[in-house]
Amino acid sequence: MTYTRPEFVRSPTLSGLECLQCSARYPVEDLPLGCPACDAARRNSNLFCVYDDSAQTLADRLPYRNTPALGDGGTPLLRLPWLENASVKNEAANPTGSHKDRFAAMVVAHAAASGYERVAIGSSGNAGIALGAYAAAAGLHCTVAGYTRLPEGTREQLSALGTDLRLFDTDRERVGLIRDLATKPDTLAVSNIADPFVGCHPIGIEGYKRIAWEIADQASAEVRHVVLPTCRGDLAWGVYRGFHDLCELRAMPMPRLHLVEPIPRLAAVLDGAPVTGHFPGDTGRLHSIAGHTTTVQAHRAATLSNGTAVVVSPDVADEWFARLCGGGHVWERSSVTVFAAYDRLRAEGTIEATEYTVLVATSHFFKGL
Ligand SMILES: [Zn+2]
Fold first, then answer.
1. Which domains does the chain have, with CATH numbers?
2. What is the mean pLDDT of residues 135-152?
């Protein structure tokens, strides 16, 4: 049995990139600072993929039709008997245990098709393991810039995947490495190097659209609300774009997206704070959704879907983590914030009892050590 390096071909329907904020159009290229025009104006924003008019099927609206074949996607939509009129999209069922597989599969296909030999990412764990696995599957090298607090088990997993793991005490040092690597022609930096961060590589974010498409196929009722954990809004924006495709191609209504965060960041921006602001606060052990900034893409996912931001404190997340573990559910601490948020949104009437809702549980608790 001989392992051959897979070939990845960019979809001919992918016509360019567009800025979420200023709508400037760019050809398909790797711009790790996001929109150059907005970066120059110090109001950073990510870009998103645009397709030509011939893209009339969902599959036409992905940058790559084939990606490293590790079995990502097709995750279950769970009905839990105690969760009234809601289901859980269980992204922990992805091969490396989180939704990040979908990003990693797509961005690694892009890196390989574009001739890069290495991918690089700043990660608190989930994204690094996903990127390491998919890079290995595609025969690419992978550098992960993590924190020195990274659990020993996670370090061993990254090492087993052959990643070049670098550990730093501060975010500044960590981003500094990715910024250096982004200047190397053989390396694709897939995470943020802008200040403040704008979000990760737009081609990888396209991988999250399939979460929306799968939910639409799996749901037995019209989805009115989606609740999902949020850091810089990659997942929320990708899911929003997926539902946007469904609106255009299948005339489906857009569900309201509720973005859950540990401290008021997006919530503060929705109340009028600048999107480039710095928002202090304790994020506890909610490492996957920590950070003190938000993004234009998080803001757009909430506002364009008529959604909201929901703050779930680390203490409340701890309560729900214990409650769910007590019922045998093994989701990461950051992931269970969606249950607390749903409980609150139902209690305050933002979600009515008759409105079917999907909660996105992003990660297995093996990852939230
Ligand atoms: Zn722009």
1. 14-61 (no CATH), 77-99+204-361 (3.40.50.1100), 101-200 (3.40.50.1100)
2. 94
